[in-house]
Amino acid sequence: MENRKSVLITIVVLLLIFTPLSIIGILNTNNIGIMEENPNHEIYYERKIYFYDSEDKFLSYYECQTEVCDFASSLIDDNTYGINYYKDGAVTKAPIVDEKYTFINDGSAIYLYATNTGSNLQTYKAIKYYNTSIENNIYIVQNSNNVWGVLSIGSTLRSVLPFQYDFIGLINNLNEDGSLKADNFIVLKDNKWSIVNSAGSTITGLIDDPIIDYTNEYIISKNQDKVRIYSYENYEYLTDYNIKDYVILDNYIGIITDTFVLVYENLGVNYLGSYTLTDNSSEVDLEKTDTKIDIKVNGNVVETIELT
To answer: How many other C-beta atoms lie within 10 A of the C-beta of residue 12?
Structure first.
């Protein structure tokens, strides 16, 4: 009887020792199974997109629901309106931001995906990032109601502009580190164009034609072949001229019509000089040194304006 009791006690002790180890073994086997599912740490493997940290440690994966499944690409609709946008970006697919977030295109939807937790946070119809980095990790996003807003993705997600615009765009204006500036946005709302800053305040008047460019002094709009130039207070400059194009160079601006080029330092006030065009299809540019501005037509200097 004592022997049977001793054997029973021994069995119970062994069960207490080995059962937790068995559970740990099963858990470890499952974890290894996840990694062995993608043994070469490929990004795309068996209808999944895998995410790893900077030390190649597995974070999570996204399981694709459709055949069209990839990191999202930027939709750039700025050329529809002739906006002077950044065209040299080489980032063709949405990056992973701070090893935490990315955008995934799966079928007709784009998901803001948390790579560190493996969860979808938001659903969008389109995103825009000009195939480059934008300061403050800015992304322009369109929701299912076809209106646009702006997100800043950092340690937290922050709404910069609400979803209420029919168009949002940035001009070709880079910081010293090569990132695209996002202090001001060109927006379209209720068939009116304006510029809104990153605090959400409208800093210009409302304009009928698409705003295609701006400086610290001027707002430039264009409708077909007609260019108009405004102050931030909505005053229109040079209304007597049929402006076809413009050239901005530092604080100077060249106004191009079918027949001549006008150069100003302070538009409408400080006129510097002009050149008469003989061919209305000519390409006009300005080139500046410390002492002069050269007017160039089709690559050749045709007029020099001395700066005093």
So the answer is: 10
CA dist 242 to 76, 103, 124, 213, 269, Å? 30, 45, 42, 18, 18
Q: Is the pLDDT of residue 30 over 50?
A: no
Distance CA 199, CA 88 (A): 27
Could you tell me the residue range of the domain that residue 25 belongs to? Answer: 1-36
**Does this model's pTM top 0.90?**
no
Considering its fold, how many domains does the chain have in total? 1
* Burial (Cβ within 10 Å: 0-12, 13-18, ≥19) of residue 32: exposed
Cα-Cα-Cα-Cα dihedral of 235, 241, 245, 248, to 10°?
Answer: -50
Q: Is 8 part of a structural domain of the chain?
A: yes
Residue positions counted in the chain: 308
Residue that the structure tokens 């020099």 belong to: 304
285 within domain boundaries = no
Q: Is 23 within the bounds of a domain? A: yes
What is the rounded distance in angstroms from the CA atom of residue 194 to the CA atom of residue 180? 19
pLDDT digits (tens, 9 = 90+) for 124-182: 999 999 999 999 999 999 999 999 999 999 878 999 999 999 999 999 999 999 999 99
Among residues 104, 108, 107, the alpha carbon closest in space to that of 120 is found at 104
Report in angstroms the alpha-carbon separations of 67 from 46, 70, 72, 92, 248.
11, 9, 14, 19, 46
> Is 216 a domain residue?
no
Tally of CA atoms within 13 A in the half-sphere of 282 that contains its CB = 22
